[in-house]
Amino acid sequence: MGREAESDETYWEDVRSRFLYDEDYVYLNTGSWGVLPRIVYEDLIGELRELERNPKRNCGALARGLESARKRLGTFTCASANDLAFVPNVTLAINTVVNGLDWNPGDEILASDQEYGAIDNCLDNARQRWGVSIRQAKLPIPPDSPDQIVDAFKSGITSRTRLLLCNHITTRTGLIAPIKALSDLAHEHDALIAFDGAHGIGMSPLDLEEVGCDFYGGNSHKWLCAPKGVGFLYASPRVQTRMKHLVVSWGRTPRVRTKPAVALPSTVPRICGAPRRGERCAGRLSRRPGPRSPFSRRSDRIGLPHEASRWPLTSVRVCKDLDWIDLLPPTHPEMSGSITTLMLKAQSGPNIGHALFNRYRITAPVSCEVDGQSIRVSTHIYNKREEVDRLVEALIELRQAS
User: What DSSP designation does 106 have?
Assistant: First the structure.
């Protein structure tokens, strides 16, 4: 996309019109959910209608659509479709990894201290269930360079570390981790590595072959603007046989049936699907747990650029002149993207997120912190610069009124 197009507001207005964006509101929360493109919404409703006309007879078309979507996802992430599985979200993807591996008491998982709360709960469950020790690499806020992130993990690895777990892009601060260097670090110490890529796909270019990680979970309903409930799990072929089945259903082994079996296509994958007839699938994930919605299929109608935001760290830079606001994301160009978190120091009282929505119609998540409140700004290509300016002006007005 050329510089001419980037500066052409007529062009960007056309892009904005292609999304179900409500002009009565300012939506700065793609970090939670993206706004659906109109074409995806229309296709989704149309295919759901077609499916329900004869659910059993039409489910074959749904299955073929899922295969097509998975292949396109593989192209987009530079991975084989055979190594990808659709799941509802990253939380399930990471749970599949952690709960699908064998553990012994005293084994260690090394994660960052900026993991998503649901993932922290997953790790705590492993601690209670198998006696796994959970260690944390303490990441600086903000870090000065990617090396600081690698060094934080390096200092936490021991001879008992079996799995490294890290956000590709942190939920709280928007830090983009050096995932290739972290993968190399893990493998140098004979450990596996899994990435929570909830914010990775769509915001940052993703080449899973180049990264060389063992596992990567992604959410497509954020920066790719796919329907809600569309996520994926990637597992490298070299680790798939080490995984245990969490859900056992059709496709795990050749089966004896009392009625004729439906032939499975030769393209049905290992990790994401049933084995070919006569082939076992021990230790691999099953793709056929039962009926699936058309949501995953419609993830293949996205044609967005990797650069998910037009305004990363631009309009909010005025906050640097305000002594009551700190910017939490790193300023290093390789480590910052479309998430900018503002720390409102000494901001007491009610959560200002309610005032932002009720008075200014601005949607952005606000969290109560020890020393104040933080607000996460996550912009996409459908956002205007003046919308971020409007947020900053609202924060100043609220501060003056308090």
Answer: T
Question: Which DSSP symbol is given to 221?
Answer: S
List pLDDT tens digits, range 214-262: 999 999 999 999 999 999 999 999 999 999 888 887 766 655 444 433 3
Residue 333, pLDDT above cutoff 90: no
The CA distance from 295 to 227, in Å, is 6
**Chain centroid to CA 388:** 23
CA separation for the pair 271, 84 (Å, rounded): 7
Mean pLDDT of 185-210: 96
In a domain, residue 188? The reply is: yes
Peptide bond preceding 37 in cis form (omega within 30 of 0): no
Q: Is residue 59 part of a domain?
A: yes
- Its domain, for residue 124, covers 48-301
- For residue 10, name the pLDDT band (cuts at 50, 70, 90): confident
The structure tokens listed for 402 are 């308090």
Pair 59, 80: CB distance under 8 Å: no
Please choose, from the candidates 132, 121, 129, the residue with its C-alpha nearest in 3D space to the C-alpha of residue 91. Answer: 121
In a domain, 175, yes or no: yes
Please tell me the pTM assigned to this model: 0.86
Confidence band, pLDDT 50/70/90 cuts, at residue 319: confident
Q: Specify the CATH number for the domain of residue 367.
A: 3.90.1150.10
Residue in 301, 347, 387, 339 with CA at minimum distance from that of residue 175? 339
Cα dihedral 207, 12, 226, 264, rounded to 10, equals: -60
Task: For residue 109, tell me if it sits in a domain.
Answer: yes
